[in-house]
């Protein structure tokens, strides 16, 4: 009853928490500073690889991996969405943790795609090194020249040509492409503009070093480059890859994209909840320890009310995400479509507001990088656009709501 | 996993839903009109008693009753809070239903108090006729002359005097006191101003017809008198009742009040969720069926976004209340103190906003009494004050939140 | 510089304020109670007529009257919109005052229509007794069966037939029609469904006692009937009036309605600002005088912040209305279209929020009719629908905003 | 009537607008890129100095300068606050413009302090080169180790010692200190902890190159360093300057700070209004030119409503700032204390919300630095803390509001 994790998940939660406290938190600020001050911030810090090795050794690795489907048993017995959710929440408390545990976007989503839609050969070539953390990947969908909130707008092309497919166009916000280990791009392009709206586009596996692929620049998201991962603007000029690099088949991109959506959004949202929880904790600690006008900050004006509102908002948001994870586990994406969009609307907005409050309690410090709050806030803001803007998700929720009554009118 | 009701509850939910659809909804408007147009609106409509009889016959009666504690087995095997919650939600869809099922405030809370704290004699005298629906009761706590949000402010007195207790003072918002069947008042008064803050007040059972009890007037709540139940302002002038009418003992009022709180707030909140759901349904139906500027209203401006936001808000609120009910069941009030206050803040505000949206989609009709929305809206507003104003509950939530960190500072 | 009133207006403001304090405030609660407790609340209280007489005697009468246009000099030298605005604000502090000063909706708008569009004969017959306060009037536009937010939806008909015009259909929210002195209805009906969207409807003067006019019922607005004025649902069955009762000409209704809009909305908004100011004053006084948890309420939690936010919101709203009045004076309605809609969106919402806060500080008292807050709150809510719902006005503002850039795209 | 600028101001407004369009806008992106890509971004771009020279030549220089007080005539005839306000709004449309016109914080505030409180010698030494744009300055008040929202908390010391004053402590958010031309620091320190709360602190002029002054680091504000100006953390270790560098006298810091407040906040707020206007313009243009789901973005969901709300919010905010400027001009700071705090609460929040909406309409582009929106958004956020957090200003507004009624209770 309720959303208590399974015994196996509970044990993992405790070990992840302990790893966070003993291995990651003590070095995180140092590692960020090392990256920031490095001659080349795009080179991953060696200490980071050590953390990964330690996490892997302890079995805290690829925990995002979904429950095995027939034919995928060799990739391990995954957790249910509901069991993974509190682990994702914990990793969200730290900007480093998702990477340390090999549970970061977009690699998780890309691995899921390969797991579910890849051929045995594709799994061997790309999935296995990704699961090993040996390589990294990017997802190339959003485009600078069209309103990408409507994914059918995508105009970059993937045109089959004999036993090859030819790719042209420009993508941006290809996250992770700045990393030196990024070797695989999953590209979505227009193949047949005359097909049904959702059958026009194709997904193709593109090795990063294919001729014609060029990272034009790395983009700051709210002034941060997120080194060493980065967000790239990428041009594709007559890029040719073998036709077998097409995932599933031409025109199947939307079908594949669908599969990525549910769990990916649950992960994003649970991490944001972890971030909001951490921010609330920082706010309370700061508010208790600093004094103005003769009182601890928490006792001034509406600060206690705001702390209460943050607690209420976090709790409601978490329950909605857990419920969504539960629905995904029990009814699949089709039974959770509205909920997946609901959390995507509710959680980033909630997180942004909670973090905003925490910043306010930190005064000038909240704007600096002495605290993780500024990065948390701009990160939460970015997630109101990434993976579909709020407005599109509200549209999905409304459509499903109206459908309940339309027939009966 | 999740908050699925038990098999027993599921069966009751279906029967309550069916009763609502077949027995209550078809006659509700008519019954309200009959009351409104009656020569004396304070006389309950005979048709209402018939509905009660039918509900009782079908076993849809006193479903709020908590799980039996030792010594109370004869009053039946109650439902858990989590199992009763969806039933309460259903009854909230109608203003009549809680009364039809003998599950309305404040009688439910008063019955719980008697069940838990009453002597065998008190149960026989008051609890049994209340459970039978033969009499009604009121709760006399709030006072016009002090800020009653701080319950320790209560100034009306209950002074033991030999084998009697003497009551003086003035109360208001004594809900239900306008009903001709109201025979019992539970009165809270100051006994010892020098005792500890939470040991000064006493609860006393006062028969409605005791000399010195006078209903000075019936109060409109946002312009509605809620006939035939009503909200009274009541003066107590040298009212004398036997000392054995004191519940538990002098100075024990806060201890008793505590026991009322948790379930009562879950009930209020679940009913509001039912009301919000019903309002959203009305909003969508209206928005689909009316046309302006050449389109159904739902397709104009931000209407779909507002419908989506309402869906998200209701879902989050419901999960928080279910989680609170679950905590009450598994950890008792002590383990759910923050959550009980969280829902009391979150749910009425959510309901008020959802209903406001529904009114807006109904245009002028939404302001009239052709739809239940105006009454729903002002009712939700009133619940931001009744049972403790939002601000006090936020204070509770904040205090518990701060306590997590205070020791570690 | 700024929005200081003229010397003449300043003098009137002071006299209106003094009249409010000495004549109206002392008797207002009593007068409301007398109406409420009367055998027939639809009969105006005699004391009310005395107040009107006194106001008129002091020259505080018809102050809303716009500046004279050529041909209307005999109706007096009106104030500019900017000069009348602070007077309207003052009258908004009391529910009675607008009537006492003969400055209440819808009579003001109806008088303006007659002044601007009436023939000499129509002025003599209807305008003069309205200016005298001898009769009252209603405006019959909104319909129960169509979404009236789109005024072109109006389906009741006004069909010329020889030297008569025949009226059929049903209207509701015809404010003022419950008053025994209401003798004139201004009716808007469909004449030519094939004409241009804004040339289909006609306005007709209909004497209240014309055969076929029936007040089907009086509607409560958020549970209040607003006796003795009321809001009626009115049926028109083969109602025949002389063709010269058509205002201006067939198909000219929208043109006439336009002229009503600007000043009427400024008046509504300024009255709401007065109501919000009065509510804030009540909130502060209550918050200073009541104590909970050992402190005056104003010093608890976020109460001071809410008071500050109310002050800021009122000040911003007032300035926007004054600016709109100033634009109406200097550039006419065409130069103030966006602003007139802006205030209609901003002010009722602001007032609703400020009053909500004041209610919260009054606890249960705020829900009762011991304070004007409950009526203020539901009244402000109603104004988010009356005179066009917020959504329609936002649409106007957006259209004008977009037009600034459309040509340049 | 209204807030029309004087003829002189109107002429300046037009020239500033034209300068913005012809001189600044065409090169701004380029200049920002040049700074960003420079080997040393802390070296001002030569092109910038050219712009300044051109602005100065055209008389668009030091326009912020307040109206001359006796003894200051040689520094020119300044504009009233109301006349300068729309010019400040224009400069806010560009991040560069305030610097180009020598009208940027904190130099403006520092120049005002010198103008009003400096000796003739101090004016000659510091004010004149500041007015010339030959040097720059910083203001050292906020401290990392105390809650600086309560300015009486400031713990860094300024201790008179014979004919010197000795300075010790640590400041941060000293804006402008990263610039190579920054030669003057105005330092606020504790002199006499036993004096009256507002008479403990002293302001001292400290040449940037005095031994013991060390910029420990430059702080990012929401990830931006704002090169070449920057925000510094500065340590002062046994810094000794002549006693005549004390402004006015020991213990007079609060008195001096007061004088800075009013106009400085009007400037900040008007610039934010310019930024919000510019963001709204970008939002509308983007919304008209991009298409999703077959429609221009502006016609999707609630976008038009949000554009309307932005227009309404900007207009209300602007009027409140103009009213505040007018009060400062006519009644001085004492007559505008509440309003100065009101705008400081209302305007940054409004700007943050409007810009947030504009970002949302820009999709991923809104997060990048291809548009000024990300910088605008984080800048508006920072201003909810800089110059006093919202909560402190709400406290001022509430205090003044309560004082209206306190005596009468």
Explain this structure:
Four copies of one chain form a homotetramer. Chain A has 409 residues and is α+β, with helices and mostly antiparallel strands. Chain A folds into three domains: 7-118, Orthogonal Bundle (Butyryl-Coa Dehydrogenase, subunit A, domain 1), CATH 1.10.540; 137-247, Butyryl-CoA Dehydrogenase, subunit A, domain 2, CATH 2.40.110; 254-406, Up-down Bundle (Butyryl-CoA Dehydrogenase, subunit A, domain 3). Chain A has twelve helices and nine strands. The first copy, chain A, has helices at residues 7-37, 46-57, 81-91, 97-100, 107-117, 120-132, 253-289, 303-331, 337-362, 364-367, 373-382, 390-406; strands at 136-140, 157-161, 164-175, 182-190, 201-207, 213-218, 231-242, 291-292, 295-296. In chain A, the strands form three sheets. In chain A, strands 2-3-7-6 form a four-stranded antiparallel beta sheet, with no helix packed on it. In chain A, strands 1-4-5 form a three-stranded mixed beta sheet. In chain A, β2 and β3 (164-175) form a beta hairpin. In chain A, α7 (253-289) packs antiparallel against α8 (303-331) and α9 (337-362) packs antiparallel against α12 (390-406). Chain A is globular. The model of chain A has no long low-confidence stretch (mean pLDDT 95). Chains in contact: A-B, A-C, A-D, B-C, B-D, C-D. At the A-D interface, β8, α9, α10, α11 and α12 of A face β8, α9, α10, α11 and α12 of D.
């Amino acid at each position: 009853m309720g959303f208590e994790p399974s015994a196996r998940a509970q044990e993992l939660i405790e070990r992840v928490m302990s790893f966070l406290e003993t291995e990651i938190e003590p070095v995180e600020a140092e590692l960020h500073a090392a990256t920031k001050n490095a001659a080349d911030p795009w080179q991953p810090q060696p200490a980071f690889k050590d953390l990964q090795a330690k996490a892997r050794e302890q079995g805290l690795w690829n925990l995002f991996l979904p429950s095995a489907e027939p034919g995928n048993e060799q990739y391990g017995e995954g957790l249910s969405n509901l069991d993974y959710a509190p682990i994702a929440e914990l990793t969200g408390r730290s900007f480093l943790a998702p990477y340390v545990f090999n549970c970061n976007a977009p690699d998780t989503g890309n691995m899921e795609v390969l797991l579910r839609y890849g051929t045995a050969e594709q799994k061997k070539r790309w999935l296995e090194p990704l699961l090993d953390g040996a390589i990294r990947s990017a997802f190339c969908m959003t485009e600078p020249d069209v309103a990408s909130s409507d994914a059918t707008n995508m105009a970059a092309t993937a045109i089959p040509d004999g036993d090859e497919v030819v790719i042209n166009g420009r993508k941006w916000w290809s996250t992770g492409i700045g990393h030196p280990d990024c070797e695989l791009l999953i590209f979505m392009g227009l193949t047949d503009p005359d097909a049904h709206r959702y059958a026009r586009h194709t997904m193709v596996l593109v090795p990063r070093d294919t001729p014609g692929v060029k990272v034009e620049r790395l983009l700051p998201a709210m002034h941060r480059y997120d080194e060493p991962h980065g967000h790239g603007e990428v041009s594709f000029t007559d890029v040719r890859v073998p036709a077998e690099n097409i995932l599933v088949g031409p025109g199947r991109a939307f079908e594949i994209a669908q599969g990525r959506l549910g769990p990916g959004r649950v992960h994003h949202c649970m991490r944001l909840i972890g971030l909001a929880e951490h921010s609330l904790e920082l706010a309370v600690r700061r508010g208790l320890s600093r004094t103005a006008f003769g009182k601890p900050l928490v006792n001034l004006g509406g600060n206690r009310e705001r702390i209460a509102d943050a607690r209420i908002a976090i709790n409601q948001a978490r329950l909605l995400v857990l419920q969504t994870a539960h629905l995904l586990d029990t009814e699949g994406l089709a039974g959770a479509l509205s909920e997946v969009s609901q959390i995507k609307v509710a959680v980033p907005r909630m997180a942004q507001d909670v973090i905003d409050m925490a910043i306010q309690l930190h005064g000038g410090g909240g704007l600096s990088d002495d605290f993780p709050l500024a990065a948390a806030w701009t990160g939460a803001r970015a997630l109101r656009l990434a993976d579909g803007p709020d407005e599109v998700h509200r549209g999905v929720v409304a459509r499903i709501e109206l459908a309940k009554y339309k027939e009966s009118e």
